[in-house]
Design brief:
heterotrimer; A alpha/beta (378); B mainly alpha (370); C alpha+beta (481); A: 378 residues; alpha/beta; GMP Synthetase, Chain A, domain 3; nine-stranded mixed sheet; four-stranded mixed sheet; B: 370 residues; mainly alpha; Amino acid/polyamine transporter I; 15 helices; globular
Chain lengths: 378, 370, 481
Amino acid sequence: MSSLKFIGLFILTVAALFIGGCDGGLELNEIHIVHAIAIDKGEHAPIRLTAEISKIVTGGQQPKGMQSDSFFLSHEGENVFEAARLMRNKSDRMLLWGHTSVILFSKDVMKDGLSQHVESIRRLRQFRNSTLLYMTEGKAYEKLQMPAPNLMITSQVLKGLAQNGKANAMTMKVTLIDVYRDYINEFRDIAIPAILRVKDSEDDKLILQATGLFIFEKDHLAGKLSPGQTRAFMRANNRMAGSLEKIPCGSGKEISFENINNNSKMHVTLDSEQKPQVSFNITADLTITDLPCEEFDITPAMIHAWEDQLNEKIAEDIRKFIRYTQKRHTDLLGVGEWIHRKHPQIWRTMKENWPEQYSGIQPKIEVHTRIDHSNFIT
Amino acid sequence: MMRQTTITNQQMMALLVISTVGTASLYAPAILTQYASRDSWFLVLLGGSVGILNVLVFLQLNKWYPGKSIVAISRQVLGGWFGGLFSFLFFFYYLDITSWVLREYAQFFIIALNPMIPQNGYMVVGVIMCAYAVFHGLEVIARVALLILGISVVTFLFIYILLFNSYNFEYLLPVMENGIGSAFKGSFVVISWFGDMMFISMIIQHVKRTKKTVPYAIAGIVISFLLLMMSVVGCIVVFGGKGTSTFTYPIVSLIQNIKLFGDIERLDAILIAIWVMSSFVKVTVYFWSSLQALTEWLHINRPRLFIPPLAVAVVLCARFKIWGLIEMSSLYDRQAWYFLIFQFVLPVVLLLVAAVRQNSIPEEKSYGSG
Amino acid sequence: MEADEQRFTFDMAENKRLLSERMYHTEDLMMNEIEGQDGEGQITICHLTGLANAEMLRQVYAFYPDHVSLLRTVTSEYEIHTISEAAKELASGNTVLLYHSKQYGISIDTLSVQLRSVEEPVSEAAVKGARSGFTESFRNNLALIRYHCPSPDLKIEFKDAGVVTSTTLAVISMGGITNPALLEEVHRRIQEIPVDIIQGDNTVEEWIVDNRGTLLPLIETTERPDRVVAALLEGRIGIIIQGSPFALMLPYVFLQAFQVSEDYAWSFYIGSSIRFMRLACALIGALLPGFYVATVTFHHELVPTSLLQSIASAREPVPFPAVIESFAMMIAFEIMREAGVRMPKQVGQAVSIVGALILGQAAVQAGIVSPIMVIVAALTGIATFTLPSTAINYVIRMIQFGITLMASMLGYVGIVASVIMLMTYLASLRSFGVPYLSPAAPFDFEQLSDIVIRRPSTFNSKRPGLFHPLRRRRFREGTRR
């Protein structure tokens, strides 16, 4: 009796599973892994989607991992979803979008507005939160199809480039979820790192480089930050880890400092006329990396002098950056949201003409640098 | 002669916690933030306090009528006709909740896994595993529930600790921007989640009563409250209030933010395990309650025979009661009063009637003796 | 049946005839008559050739007339009254003396069978700790237990089971520790065994467990006397069955399957970490193939991109779905394991070479399985061998097939669903009233910490309460922790 029940239960389960069908699963032999996509304006349709797909190399004892070769498919469509679905027609296998690590937008396509793309990509549940976003002038698919110097998959190159932000603060790691969160909550305006195609100085090969940021005013593309402005932005926004600063020391030569530590605090206050006042308090540690100048005895007084020079220069950089964003009405630092959090009642009225209010702000910038050690040769 | 089934206080607590928030904490942040944005923690606070009140109602009923389930109590308090009606209503409600939760369980996979998956297969597997547990009885369910509580609490804590770096507590500011009144709008929904512990009225008679039973029941609600609070606040401080409200299952997205050792992402598969386990406990305990209610209502001798037909009924009901996720969530939002009637209003009515009777009986006695 | 109850008559010839008839005229039955002294008349000495000890027989024959009283004092001996009793005594190797004109006989224990001597237990090898194992000798096994636990509290009760064989079982308990209710229950269940022939320990096990037809062992078996003694001291009961080199220990809870007596031979850090590792191995053994199949067919996103790339290129030439591939490897592993057990030791080398080379290397090169699958199958197989309980080891390997099947159809949902069903099943089992999953479910932190980690002995001031011992205190009165 008991065993009969068990058998019955088992048959029921198996039958249910077979009726329900074992759909949904995909063998690895039936899929192509998409590593990066580029989104351009199409010739016949609003969107042209290009996907970088890794070639599966069989044979050989060692697995090749990410060193394998890649190929490209592209298709046009009304939106990203349609283009992706139609691309399946050209592919011999199902495309697996879940491993896409980089999305590269062309500047043209972004001119139509940021939100539609971000939202349509978020709606496709396959994409990861950590997918990196990039923008580029010209054709995005061309950049994607450029051969990488070490024959890696381009997505790996772009992923690696994002790490540079930690070393030289000229680019920034921006992920899909960052953009989505800041945009939907209206925390701050969006900046997306730019990808350039440059000539490598040694041979005439073209390679990819990530410097500068594209900035948006809400939905609209507003401008582009230069590498220097990017650095100032990251310093002010407390996202800087390492960077390079230089000050002149006469005779056209410059002392180089390596920034090893940076801490920035932004304070927003409202003055008596309910006008916002923004002040920055920045502390930074630097070390001397190169000292090509004539005089060579480093005294505490001299260090102090350099520190003052650096303070001045960094403050000026940040001031320039803020002036640029004010011109473009782009609140990259989230000053508005800061006021919203601290003074919600005042923000309600201020929100209406925030871009003008923002343009009028005169930031107070206080920089305290400390030159840590002179990095003498051991 | 069946052995007396008893479960311990801890096991009762486990059942309470998992049934109230085991599944709710996955989608709660999204629904609550739609009402109150970044102030949703207030709703959770509100729901938790009403939840404690609610559980006290059932505990009081049990105190007056020890060893009796709500079905038996309503019989005794309201007499044959009304009692029978109440018994039927409770039975119906338990069965209804079973199918709701089963549908919820299957719906999750469409979002979290793949929209193309066959929903029926998942539902059938789910109901088979629940029916199997119901077949083994409450003791077994309670034991498994305690294990599952351990697993899911550890997993949730693990998730929240791993995410610690991405918390921005300033996203909770400003507090109560639009005044405290606007935050009350979603209170029905959150109270109905905490009200999901109403099956306690069927199991409390099997709990091995000690002095600590009441504290344990309240602790169950408090733990549920803390878990729900953690999930709501966790989502808000990572995605912001508005951002959270745009997701279907914010915790799924939350866990996707975790990056282990640089390259392991998309740990949302772990949540599938938690989801299946929690849904299992919830469906099972409601299934058991409905079976028990049916047994007591109609005085059935061999209740196990009713498991297969009830299981089939639950699957069919779950399959055809709504057409999709949007209808389901809007029903939960707007028709929350439906759940509240059974979770709160009917028991309170019962309690009041019982109170009147209770007062009258001792009075007569004292009158007689004095 | 009535013939069995036939009592001895006064007529010696009739007695002999009846006895011979009862044993179906077996030809190894020896019946020799000698003259008794002091007017005892004729005495018939009956025994089965081969079973009785020749030396003792010689003594009986040679010295009987003079030394019968002496003999009576040195060997166990008791009176028998019926033919069938006499036949039973003979069958178990005793010598029966039939007296002329008396209605009873005397049975003298003269059993001697050549059995193997005490060896190291095969199924439970240990690096450190006692090395003696049980043998087929019933008496020797009892002696081993007595030797490992020289306590007057040790109580042995004999019970016969099996209508035809009437195999003797020894129920061993500790007076003052073992719960009498438990002991009574064991006796009751042994009493109720209706089977005619007891083939070994498993027959007894199957008849006395709570849930008949259970998937998992509800009674622990061991070859090690020291383990039986340790179990007795926890308030459990040991059963030794005549002719079986395994002792039964009960009640048994699932988590004890991960305990080895050797844990207590090492420092508690080592003991605990090894025990944890065994738990992890059980999980690997049950879940890993299912997890792999579910991951590569349903949850591609979870795998790091570069690893997925490697797996994909390794799997590229394999024409089968992952589930078929994994079933093939798991079955191949089972075949090799079974062959390894059945095969003479001399050819063992060949199987390992063929197994590793053909099934590993060549199958990959031929594109039948992917290298990752070979790793998964091998790891799974080896992981299950770490479990001390062979029965649970086999069960886990059975479960892994089911879980893999579910995983291939529903992905992780399938795995979790089957794990839940398994948990429900385990939670529904009981071993002599003790819930099988306790102390995890029902939860008891104190007991769980004792069973999952191997606590330092100085901390164990109480014996586990799981088996309801009469006395929980372990230390001398007044000992500080």
